[in-house]
Amino acid sequence: MNIQSAISREIFVPRDEKLLVAIEVRRRMKRKGLSFLNAGRKRDYLTYLCLSVTNSRPAQVLITKVKKYRGTRPLAKRSQWSVEQLRQVNGINPDKDTPEFDLVFDRTTDQWVASSAAEKCMFVQVLYHACQNYWEAKLAQANPASPADQKTPGAPENKKSPGAPSQTSFVNCQQKLMGDACSVNMVIYRCKIFLNRMKNSMTANQGQPQREAAVKASRSRSSPSPPAVRKMGNVMRRASQVLSERGERLMRADDKTSHLLHGAKQFAEAAQKVSYSDLHETELHIVMNNQAVKQM
Asked: Which residue ranges does the record annotate as region Disordered (predicted)?
C-alpha cells in the first residue's frame, strides 16, 4: 500500500471525504518561535499536504496537513483549511517546473517545498481545477442562471457581482497547469512522481546495508571479539606471573645479600678481637724478658 492510499484510509475515509492528491512537503522557511522550545525537538516525522473533497452536498474542498511519524506511530491530522480561507496560490516561477510554492490563507502564509517539482505541479493543477469547480458551483447557487450563461473551462472569467465572495487567485503559476486536469501533463507528472519515489526507495535500500556494515565495523573497533578478548587475557595473566616470579627472585637475592653482610661483619669483629689478644700477649712477653735481663 502506497502512502496516498494509507492517508486516504486512515484520515479521510472515516471523515467521509475523498482524497484527491497528497504530496510530501517541508517548510522552505522556518517559522519564528521560541528557540529553547525548538532546541530539543527532533524531526522524526514527514509532512504531507493533502487536497480532499467532502462526499456530502454541497461539497467542500479542504486542504489538510498530515504528519507521518517514523516507527509504529499512526498518521495524524494537524491542520485543515477550506478553499474559502485560501486567498492565493503562488507558484514562485512561471517559466519552469520548481518544487517551491506558497499558500496564502486568511491569517497565515505557508511556504513549502515539495519533494519534487512534479509533485508540486500536480498538486497545483489539481488544486486549480478543484477551486474552479467549487467557486463555479458557489456562484451558481448564489446566482442561478441558464446553462448557456455558465462558465466553461478555459473561457474568460466574467466580472464578479458586488456580493460575490473573493475567489482564490493563482499567481506565478505555469500556464500549462491551468489546462485540462486530464491532459498529458497530468500523466507525465504521475509517471515522474512514481519514478522519483522508486529511485528514493532504491537509494534507501542500497544505503541500509552500508549503514549496517558501518555500525558493525564501529562495534568491532570499539569492542574486540571474544577470541581477541581471551588472547588478551592470557597475555595479561602471563605477564603478571612473570612479574611475580621476578619479584620473588629479587626478594631472595636481597635476603642472601643481607645474610652475607651480617656474616662479614661478624667475621671482621672476630678477626679484630683475635688481633688485639695476640698483640696483648706479645707485649707481656717483651715486658717479662726485660725484667729477666735486669735481674741478671
From this structure: 144-167, 202-230
3-29+42-144+164-205: CATH topology is: PH-domain like (2.30.29)
Number of Cβ within 10 Å of residue 135's Cβ equals 21
Predicted confidence (pLDDT) per residue in 132-159, tens digit: 999 998 888 877 754 445 555 544 454 4
The pLDDT of residue 129 is: 92
pLDDT at residue 156, rounded to an integer: 46
Distance CA 236, CA 250 (A): 21
| CA–CA distance, 281 with 278 (Å, rounded to integer) | 5
For residues 123 and 117, give the distance between their C-alpha atoms in angstroms, rounded to a whole number: 10
Residues 6+ apart with CB under 8 A from 60: 53, 54, 82, 83, 134
Residue 260 one-letter amino acid: L
pTM: 0.59
Q: Counting Cβ atoms within 10 Å, is residue 105 exposed (0-12), middle (13-18) or buried (19+)?
A: middle
Q: For 134, how many CA atoms within 13 A lie in the half-sphere containing its CB? A: 23
Q: In the chain, where are the structural domains located?
A: 3-29+42-144+164-205, 228-296
Model confidence pLDDT, tens digit, residues 249-273: 777 777 777 778 788 888 888 877 7
